[in-house]
Amino acid sequence: MGELIVTILTGLSSAASLFLVAAGLSIIFGVTRIVNFAHGSFYMLGAFIGYTMVQAIGGTIVSYWVAVLIAALVVGLIGVLMEILLLRRIYHAPELFQLIATFGVILVIQDVAKEIWGNEDIVSPRAPGLDGAVEIFGQRLPEYDLALIAIAPMVLIGLRLLFYKTRWGTLVRAATQDRQMVAALGVNQRWLFTGVVFLGSLLAGLGGAVQLPKGGADLLMDFGIIAEAFVVVVVGGMGSLGGAFLAAILIGLLNVFGIQIFPNSTLVMMFLVMAVVLVFRPWGLLGKPETPAATGTEIPNEPLRPAVPMVKVLAGLVLAFLIALPLLQELFPTVLDPFVIVQANEILFFVLFAAALHFIMGPGGMVSFGHAAFFGGGAYTSALLVFHFGLPFELAFPAAPIGAALLALIIGWFCVRLTGVYFAMLTLAFAQIAWSIVFQWTEVTEGDDGINSIWPSDWVTPLVLYYLTLGLTVAGVLLIRRIVFSPFGYALRAGRDSPLRSEAIGINIRRQQWFAFTISGAFAGVAGALFLYTKGSIAPTSMEIARSFDALLMTLLGGVEALAGPVVGAAAFKLLEDLFAASEYWRGLMGITIIALVLLLPKGVAGFAQTGVGRRLGLSRAEEVRA
Amino acid sequence: MSTVLSVQNLSKAFGGVQAVEDVTFAVDAGEMRALIGPNGAGKTTCFNMLNGQLKPDSGDVLLGNRSILGLPPREVWRRGVGRTFQITATYGSMTVRENIQTTLLSHHRQINRMWTAARTLFVDEAMALLEQVGMVNQYDRACGVLAYGDLKRVELAVALANDPQVLLMDEPTAGMAPRERVDLMALTAEIASARNIAVLFTEHDMDVVFAHAHRIMVLDRGRLIAEGAPNDVRNNEMVQEVYLGSGAVHGVGSA
Ligand SMILES: Nc1ncnc2c1ncn2[C@@H]1O[C@H](COP(=O)(O)OP(=O)(O)OP(=O)(O)O)[C@@H](O)[C@H]1O
Ligand SMILES: [Mg+2]
Predict the structure, then answer these.
(1) How many domains does chain A have?
(2) What ipTM describes this predicted complex?
(3) Is residue B159 within 6 Å of ligand 1 at its C-beta?
(4) Is residue B8 part of a domain?
(5) What is the number of the ligand closest to the CA of B46?
(6) A523, exposed or middle or buried, with CB in 10 Å at 0-12, 13-18, 19+?
(7) Chain A residue at shortest CA distance from B108
(8) Which residue of A has its CA nearest to B155?
(9) Residue A594 above 90 pLDDT?
(10) What is the pTM of this model?
């Protein structure tokens, strides 16, 4: 009895910061329609700044909580800074750019935090007056847990008062419900948006600061919380505070009970709950169906045409160079390092990975934030077959796309029920779950260490592997291209351009998207298996959010609209990465590059072909004047 | 003439608004039937229930003598109900011809082929349809850059692509010049009678309505208040009241 109550209370206390973060995310999205990926970073900053403030002034009960509040306020102001410098310029950009830009912010904040607070984890400080424990039916419960349990409902009530009793709150609610209304606000719109981002960021910072006595602070907190916050928001319903509250409690309780029942599969349970909720209520427990975005503002893509001769010639030249590369390297060892082959090899399988993602993102209009699940899924399929059953390369390798496709089939079935940012969040949440299975299920997957010493058969020398990679990548890219131009590809684009029309001409969009998702997963799986056999090992890092983002960045870097985008983008990305790798601050540099790219070159490098200059160079056809 | 589409006691409410209330009518093959009424009368809502986009609160929709109630739009379309939208819905990133080809591919159940280039399939059929609506010379332009009136033509060609028994046209001429409107509807009437298609259309331009409709129905706040031949409807007092009262539409008393 006592044990049960204490477990419930522990669950409720762990729900507190989750609720704060999810509520902030939800509020910002409601008004600005931007999913702030950097929200996890604000949470992390809240913890770090809170720690610094507590060290400085937090000796007494009152000053401790003042320190916590100051931390939250500072994070709120950092949010304002981001809003003014970045978000304001991209409110009208496609969703993908917004998400990518805030991802750039994550990278920058990571490096800044590392610089200020160092690499060491920060241990939990004690909260004065709350560092004891209370006894409940003979069970001990930390006093601080009780404080946490009180905080979430207090914040919820505070927010409701703010939204229902103030003029500003009324505006926020109106803006959340009616997009047209926001535009009619004119000048005030700016401050409404800034204010909302301030409030949302402050809540994230508060969430980070209040969990300090329980979890301390470290540099991994940002990605850790964001996936969980997404699950809460998706389960609770986007834009619904009550939903976020309910879902946070649900997930909090699930975590504590899950640990008792299935100690190693807490995240899997979270997935199951989310899956069940989504099947019965696709818009979350208290959410409302997403109203389709008003059309007309977005400029339609240009029709896809077969490549112009100039591009074909260029592609041929690059291919010829890649085929000749090993020979060239032997002939001119002074100019070309042997490392160049390794580098080319790596670029190649990332080209395939990016092309797979681009297939659903460009023509399909589905932005997947969790494609690393399939990359890693393919790699792990092969690795596990070798590790546990001793399958030879010749069997284990072809199994990779099958394993990845099966995974995509399951995940896709849930994801295609949603669209836009909901889809993106759901893919990310699923990928995070796939990651956690690999990470937690040590008996099978070797957990964090990964599976090592997986090499191909003897006949597959590094040179053969290089040509295999080249061959499969080229074949994969051409095959995807072929599908894009096939009736199936047209149906996919049709679903992106006008779901209404597609449904009215007999196309089952969901099924189309589901198949496309699965196909894309299979190709990503091939890329993953190539990665595995090139490196000889696979670890959970290959399924991380950051890896999913690599693929997104490659696609973005290349330009989403152009079919050549992922090819050019993957190459550009890898070269940039190598360039930055020498620097201690490569993350921050990458982040700044991403942000600059979104602001300055939104059509990507390959999209450059469709600009005036590109057309004059013969890289694409003459533009048609819009009527 | 035989009845192809019959609608029985159809009703739909949004929250407190009774958008469509107890609407009953039937359309014959080869007939041009206009559904008119002031803004917000419930015309589009009615259409949305006919093609499966909305589920009625009550009532039934029969195609031939089989109910199509509860079928998704794509199924309704497969049974021969084509549709154009009040706000055009075409594929902006495809050319005019590709829009038609995509529809034809779906109609002939070849939409899931993955190898052959879609651009090379059903070219002649697509061009023939574009010929009918007068869009041949613009076949290679992207729908995203077309003038609005041309988009309406493309929609008509799309709607004709599956050899429909019934054509639902929601304000087919909105956004067109007056001359174009009459031409487009003349064309529609011609195709409808040649192919024996039942056409149900909504329209705010009374010149168009009285020039081409065989029968006219008037919807007001969700209820059908009149139905009959153009002359009867023109002289109906209730109709005059609705229109003069709202002042939204011109031309009822004249022409
Ligand atoms: N999805 C919806 N949710 C709520 N109310 C709706 C919805 N669709 C239509 N309505 C309401 O139902 C009524 C009928 O609208 P409908 O669009 O059918 O009218 P209409 O006759 O097509 O008008 P118009 O000539 O302006 O196109 C209106 O009051 C409208 O506001
Ligand atoms: Mg209407």
Answers:
(1) 2
(2) 0.91
(3) no
(4) yes
(5) 1
(6) buried
(7) A506
(8) A501
(9) no
(10) 0.87
